Amino acid sequence: MTQPPAVDRPVVGSYPDYEGAQRAVDFLSDNHFPVEHTAIIGNDLRMVETVLGRLTLGRAALAGMATGAWFGLLVGLFLTAFSANNHHVLVLIFAGLVYGLVFGAIWGFASHAVTRGRRDFSSRSQIVAARYDVVADEKVADEAKNLLIKLGWRQGQP
Prior knowledge:
The chain is about 50% helix and about 25% strand. The chain is of the alpha+beta class.
């Protein structure tokens, strides 16, 4: 049985943040409501890029070193699986870590230098919504609304 598209279902609750919508669905679940008939829809989406700081060649190299270290450690651990001698295990792990650090630093430095100052900052992007609607299938929408009204009363909301 296929479910109807989420956008065609009635709204049973609307919340200013995702946590509120998530709390509503969790409340429905706690009250033995068939939550498989619900969905959370984010409305009025926008992309927010938070600038974390200035990115210099040194910081780019350090970030590359960190990434390279993890990758080198992973490669070193992977190589130990094929090592015939147990006493070389630490040498392989350490060598992977060192090579990862070196090549990561070179890669981070070079990749930032190639941009020639066009993006001299680091940032984090995320998609956020102005509001989050909880929707439910028509056959259970009234029950969901009634339960969410009870949740609102518990939280002191109108």
